[in-house]
Queue: 3 jobs
Job 1
Amino acid sequence: MKQIEEQQTELLHRLPTHSSIGTSTEPSNKLMAKPDKYNGTHDENIVTWLISLQEMMAYNMINDGDRISIAISYLGGTALQWFVDLTLQNQRPSSWADFKEKITARFQPVDFQEHLREQLLQLRQKQSVEDYIQSFRSIVDQVHHMDELTQVMFFVNGLSLNASLYVRLKHPKTVEEAIREATTYESVMTIRKSNHIKYNTFL
């Protein structure tokens, strides 16, 4: 155990510190949130972590040659040990694309796509339509090979009862159409409630 910790410490000492990440030539007042460390646990999503990390590095204009070193500084636990083992076996990823492919192959569950579809099946609107749309998109954007009408079906099924009925009456052909109708329904309902107006949205 002590030997593993020493190996990890030695590797991390070779990496740039977070404060040195990004040297944009143009000053910006915008803040880009740093991704959390990825530890390789079952509760973490390697795809969304990679997307978050890549967005941060693109924002800071990190070139591909430095991206692996930056990524390692955001690894911990099992994920960091995985990289240590690769390095000790002289199998360190040769490029950023190679790193993404290898870490995804190692930590993405074999049944990941089935799991995403199960999440869509169980997803329900519990708060605002906007919150539901965000949750829906965070899942469906990771799904491979799902046709548009199937996506529409999942989206409409997860809406609240009245919103779902309203959107179905509009017969949306795309997810964006369904989202627009659901948003319209919520806007009308909000206005009706705030003005104490009796209004039948189904007419």
Job 2
Amino acid sequence: MSIEKIEGKNATNQPDDGSESTNKFVSSIVINLAVAFVALSLFSFLRPRLKQIYSPRQLLLDVMFPLGKLPHSFFAWIIPAFMANDDDVFHYAGIDALVYMRFLRLCVKISLVLMPYGIAVLLPLNYFGQGGLHGLDKVAMSNIKASSSKVWAHVVSAWFYTVIICYLLYEEWKIYIIYRQEYLTTGKGHQYAVLVRDLPAKFQNEQGMKSYVEDLFPDQIEDVIMVEDLKTWQTLIGQHDSLVWKLERSKAIYERTRERPTHKTYPCSSELDSITQHESDLTTLQSKLEDEVNQEHPILPCAFVIFRTLRMATTAVQVGWDNSP
């Protein structure tokens, strides 16, 4: 019994040959590559087929975005997406998309700048660090023997990497400021709009509210927009979007099978031509929407006040508009 215990204890204390860490690393790489490939393949497959989701701006713009002319083959969008002109992305997709694209480029740029020193200097020093480790751990900093002068290479790399990254971030920030200033000087109304809530009854009309804010901010008010209760409108819009989706789906089925799809409005009703019925329902719904636009709607106790400058809009947010209790 004692011999078996000693043998079991020795078996559990066998030196690590590094295979465990290597296997974990390889497994992680394989899993991540598989997930990335599936995600990219799914996106490349759906991108040209669901333009209303992946490129809705192109459906609204009069001028086609240059990236919209890409072929529909798999992965044809990757290189042109990274090579897209900043001005095109800014004007067609907005400043948020531009910042995100430049952030991805910055990550790639940082990796390419830091990689040579890591591969040419740090990895060889770690590998021959005489720390007695095996497997993937042999190329880690922990493989360097204690009190070895080779550790200074990592100290230098820490300072070197910090300086390089800070410099790249500084250069990127300067470009961001340029586009940010250009965005703020376009003079779009929503940039200078302030939402005012909890309006008293006497100001729940456009004329009364506009007179009040013009007295507070003379010659600084561009417009006042009262917020209306549009629950009925929102319901009709939801029905409209649902019908449009059904109509597009029916037309897609017809183009693929050359057979007009049918459906039943009720379980026991007769079959109806889906395309004809959806088009008829859309026409009826469009008339309801036009009638709803011309109707008076209840005014909610809030309004959008649009200022002429961003500075005044910012000031209006920070000041008290009424000193009454």
Job 3
Amino acid sequence: MFEIRPEAPADEYEVETLYDLCFAPGRTALSSYRLREGVDRVADLCLLLRDQGGFLQAAIRYWPVRVGGQPALLLGPIAVHPTAQGEGLGGLLMRDSLARARDMGWARVLLVGDAPYYSRFGFARLEGVEMPPPTNPDRVLGLELQDGAWAGIAGEVTRETGAETTSALAEDAAPPHIDATCHETRRPRDGQDDDQTAAGAAPDQRSERS
């Protein structure tokens, strides 16, 4: 049995330790971290998966961004403890968090990752969407949580300023709760490529690389 619940401020050190374990050194140098710097996570979508003993087995985080001026979710990082990879825990977190995002009124999700893996969740390559360099455009993937949400959306992916996020969601949907206490503690460094492999990741259950 596993428990999925939102990440709390007290979980920060444990989650960062899991990411350090699963990803190669220098993960905070990835270009996607520039979009996260100084921006609060979408706290209701930052989820942890623990086993019966309370041990952290997997974690996923989301940030708000803008694509061509339109709101979107940036998914990642997602990581599964090396001893639990291959058990489908990453997929469980993906499906649970995406369902929550849809219920909250988010329309579109963006990530940087391997298309053969993320296509099973409905992600496909985005044409004309530009992540900060250096990013391989073949790894820029998107998912529609509402029909046609990516239609006509193109341009640069930029940091969310904060004020416009909730007003851009569906009028009848609950806005995302962005918790100021749930913040990224590490600063990105420029000049490295996004193509980074998660250490110890199994081919069918690799940690998201972004």
